[in-house]
TrEMBL record:
Family, similarity comment: Belongs to the paxM FAD-dependent monooxygenase family.
InterPro entries: FAD-bd (IPR002938), FAD-dep_Monooxygenase_BioMet (IPR050493), FAD/NAD-bd_sf (IPR036188)
SUPFAM superfamilies to which the protein is assigned, alphabetical: FAD-linked reductases, C-terminal domain, FAD/NAD(P)-binding domain
Name this polypeptide is given: Related to salicylate hydroxylase
Keywords carried by this UniProt record: FAD, Flavoprotein, Monooxygenase, Oxidoreductase, Signal
Top-rank lineage group of the source organism: Eukaryota
Signal peptide: 1-18
Lyase is among the record's keywords: no
Length: 418
């Protein structure tokens, strides 16, 4: 008997769940409610792109993606290169049989949305879920409408209202101590010869410095430059986002690489975003097995490893495959337990690794920073397991990029009901 599934949230995790469910089980009914796109660029590593290709998105996404030809790690002042990997995207494709893409978040969301519609997934935008009764699985919307189903997937993000309702208590994110400046520049607007030369070659560049780091990567087939600056948080406690002060931003980076400073001189307006965190939920579904969580609603992922989108997409893929083995409500508790058992170890490891990478990226000058730099410089062009910056550490790549959620979940879910 087909299930009636409601997804709250049309972000990347919610769309991934909807796509995976409908592709694996066309008979299941899927309705997605609420949400709006937020953000600028994101990095899609092979563990995520292999899922997007599985869902038939290659043709729509490939023309919009940028594939970095090299990966650079520099000391904050630009005086030392700590890591250099040529032919980076080609190497990732060869090793993991799936691309490494830099992409605008809105492009990815739109492509996933269009694909979802083509599969028969229904959407209700401008609809806010104001209440949920998990016992009978009935949602109430801001319009007074009632929506019923067999399973709700809460993909409503870090500030999830569903999470607070199911937990029966407030569940407020907490500040990490960092904030992000997010910058997108159009290549056509940049006339400086040095910057043009840097942009002409698709690349990722990380600058690691005291208490801060910056990362550059291309978007929209290398026609745009995306720069994210992670700095100590000075926003008021109750403010998550506000316009930034250009002079303040430039002052923070006034002793950094002159190349980065040139990029910052091109910026004419800026917002700053408080980076928030939440401890991972101990349980990813409720007692009645009528509500399941995914992505930031249950395991918020900080950006220091660029795995927030990837891990949410993995969650969605896992749910779709597991639910393809379910044909009646009574099987949901076992199915959701399988989902939880498979995904919590993976997300926990990524969260811990992300916090470790934050520490490495933000080391102040001193003995620990000097040891980091010595190790990195000793492996400048030939990184070995244990290299400080995970993106080009071969062991970290195998763990993060080489992970195949389809293979892992398929093996487990095939044993669900035998």
């Amino acid at each position: 008997m087909p299930l009636n599934i409601v997804v709250i949230g049309a972000g990347l995790g919610g769309l991934a769940a909807a796509l995976s469910i409908k592709q694996e089980s066309p008979a299941h009914s899927v309705l997605v409610v609420e949400s709006a796109p937020i953000g600028a660029g994101l990095q899609l590593t092979p563990n995520a792109t292999r899922l997007l290709l599985r869902w038939g998105l290659k043709t729509s996404l490939e023309p919009l993606a940028s594939s970095p030809e090299e990966f650079l790690v520099r000391r904050f002042d630009g005086r030392k290169t700590l890591g250099h990997r040529q032919n980076f995207a080609a190497e990732m494709l060869n090793k993991y049989k799936s691309p490494y893409w830099d992409m605008h978040r809105a492009d990815l969301q739109l492509a996933m949305f269009e694909r979802a519609k083509s599969l028969g997934i229904r959407f209700e935008f401008g609809t806010i879920v104001t209440d949920i009764d998990p016992a009978i699985l009935q949602l109430t919307t801001d319009k007074g409408d009632k929506i019923t189903g067999d399973l709700v997937i809460a993909a409503d993000g870090l500030w999830s209202k569903t999470r607070s309702k199911i937990l029966g208590r407030p569940s407020q994110p907490i500040a990490t101590g960092d904030l992000a400046y997010r910058i997108v520049l159009k290549k056509e607007d940049i006339q400086d010869p040095e910057l043009r030369e840097f942009i002409d070659k698709p690349r990722v560049c990380l600058w690691a410095g005291p208490d801060c780091h910056a990362i550059y990567y291309p978007l929209k087939n290398n026609t745009m430059a995306n720069i994210v600056l992670l700095v100590p948080d000075n926003l008021p406690d109750n403010v998550a986002k506000m316009p930034g002060d250009l002079s303040e931003m430039r002052e923070i980076f006034d002793k950094w690489d002159p190349l980065l400073q040139k990029f910052l001189s091109q910026v004419d307006k800026i917002d700053k975003w408080k980076l928030m965190h939440l401890d991972e939920l101990e349980r990813w579904y409720n007692e009645e097995a009528t509500v399941a969580f995914l992505g930031d609603s249950c395991h918020p992922m900080l950006p220091y490893m660029a795995q927030g989108a990837g891990s949410a997409i993995e969650d969605g893929a896992a749910l779709g495959i597991i639910l393809s083995k379910v044909d009646r409500r009574e099987q949901l508790p076992q199915a959701l337990k399988t989902y939880e058992n498979l995904r919590i170890p993976r997300s926990s490891a990524l969260q811990k690794w992300s916090m470790k990478q934050r520490h490495i990226n933000h080391l102040p000058d001193g003995p620990e920073q000097e040891a980091r730099d010595r190790l990195a410089e000793s492996q400048l062009y030939d990184q070995q397991p244990g290299y400080p910056f995970y993106w080009i550490d071969p062991a970290a790549q195998d763990f993060v990029y080489g992970y195949d959620v389809v293979a892992e979940v398929s093996d487990s879910s095939l044993r669900l009901y035998t």
